[in-house]
Amino acid sequence: MKNFKKIAAAVTCTAMLVGYASTASAVNWLLLQGTEKQGTAPRAKVWGFMQPSYQKDYSDITGPEATRIGPNLDKQSQFQLQRARIGVRGQPFPLDNNINYFFLAEFGQNAITDGGVYGEQQAVKLTDASTTFNHIKGARVRIGLFKTPGPEEVYQGIFTFDYINFTDAMNQMMLERFSTGVNSTANGNNVLTNTETGWASFGAARDIGVQVFDSFKTKGGWDHSYSVMLGNGNGLSTGGTAEGEDLYLYWSSELALPGGVGPWSHGLKMFAWSHSGQRKLDMTDDGTANAVIYDRKRSGVGVKYRHKQWRVVAEYLKGDGLIFQGPEKPNFGFGTPTSRQDLRGESDGYYLDLGWYIPGTKWELDLRYDAYNRSKTHANLAAEFRTITYGIQYHFNRKTRFTLNYSVRDAKAVGSAPFANLKSGLEGIDDRLALQATVVF
Fold it and tell me: Taking the alpha carbons of 333, 335, 337, 340 in that order, is the dihedral positive or negative?
C-alpha cells in the first residue's frame, strides 16, 4: 500500500505540472457509456468491435492449478474470437431528446458466452440494455443492465484497453463468477462435484439496477463525476445468490488536456470506488439445507494520466469476503469450507502501467507490473501472484490496431501451512504469449 501511495503521488505531481486551463474534453466513462449528445444523436447508431486473438501458455500442464487458456480451459494454446460485440445506441424519441438508450450483445468466445464445464454456454448473450433519463439537472437516472462503475481497468470501454489480459487482481476479485448457491446433491463429507460447484452466471462487471449520476465541469478544465447505483447483485442474470441489493459508489475528478478524440482523449484522472453486497450460499456439503449469508466487499483508488505520447496508470484495490480460488474452482474451492474455501477472507492487489507512443510512428510500447495477494490471512490458501507484461501495439488507424503481449508470471503459496497441491500448482505457472487484433466499427 505504501508503494502504491508513492506511485500515485508521483504520477499526480508529474501530470499536474501541466496544470493550465484547457477546453479539451476528458474521457468520462459515465457519460460516454450512459448518455448521448442532446439534440444531435441519431435514433439508432449501430456500432461494435471484434478482437480475434491467439494465446499460448507455457505453464506446466500437469499441475493441479488451471494453466490453460480460458474460458473453456481445454488447451494451452488456441486461436479464438475473444470478443465480438455489436450494439445500437441513440435517442429514440424525437419529442424528448432527454431520453437515450444503450444496447449491446456478445457473440465472441469468453466467459460471458462459454463457461466451459463449470458455467452456462450460449452463442449470444445480452450484456447491456439500458435507458437513461436526463431530465433532472445534476441527477441523471439510468435503469436496466449496464456496466457498474468501478476500477478503470474494467470500467473503461474494453476496446480501448491497452493489453489483452486483465491483471490477476482484476480478473480474480472483480469479474465475479456467481455460484449455484446450494449443493442440492450434497450427501455428507464427500468432495464437492463439478455439478455442485458450478457457476450459474458471469458478472462481466455488470448488473441490473438503477443508477443516479452526473458530471460537473469547474474552472481550470476539471470535470468531476459521481455515481450511486443499486443493483440486483447477480451480474448478467436476474436471479442468483445475492441477498438484497448491491451498492455501487463512484467518484472521479479529471483534468482535460489537449489531444486525443472521444474514448482516447487526453487527461489526468483520479478516482475512487466501492462495491458492497451479500451472497447466500450453502457450502457445507452436509446433506442439510443450511445456507449462510456472506459479505462481499470490494473497493479501490487509482490515477490515470494520458498526454501526448505518454500514458501512466496506477490502481490499488482490496476485497473482503468470497475470495475466488481459480477458474477451475468456481464455488471458491472443492472440499469443506474449513480448509479449501475462503468465504470470509481478504485479498488485495495493485498495478502500474506505462505506455509510450513513439513520436512520428504508429508504434506504441507498453509495460505493466501487477501484484495480487490472495487469501492473505488463510493458513492453507494464501498465495501471491506477480506478473510483468511487455507489450507492443501497432496502430493502423485510430480504430484498428494489433497488440502483442508477453507476460512473465510468478506465483507461490505463502501460507503457514499451504496445501501441497496448491504449492506445486502455483509453482508450475509460467509465462504467457498473447496476440490480438482490435477492429472498432
Answer: negative
Range of the domain at 136: 2-440
Which stretches within 94-200 are classed as H helix? 152-155, 168-173
Residues 274/248, Cβ–Cβ less than 8 Å: yes
Domain with residue 400: its CATH number is: 2.40.160.10
| C-alpha cell belonging to residue 403 | 497488440
Tens of pLDDT, residue by residue over 71-112, are 777 788 999 999 999 999 999 877 788 999 999 999 998 888
**Residue 417, pLDDT score:** 80
Strands 77-90 and 346-357: unpaired
Q: What sign for the dihedral angle of Cα 260, 261, 264, 266?
A: positive
- Which grid cell sits at 392? 507492443
Which one-letter DSSP state was computed for residue 264?
A: G
Single-letter code of the amino acid located at 10: A
Would you say residue 278 has pLDDT above 50? Answer: yes
Q: Taking the complete model, does pTM exceed 0.85, yes or no?
A: yes
Domains: count for the chain: 1
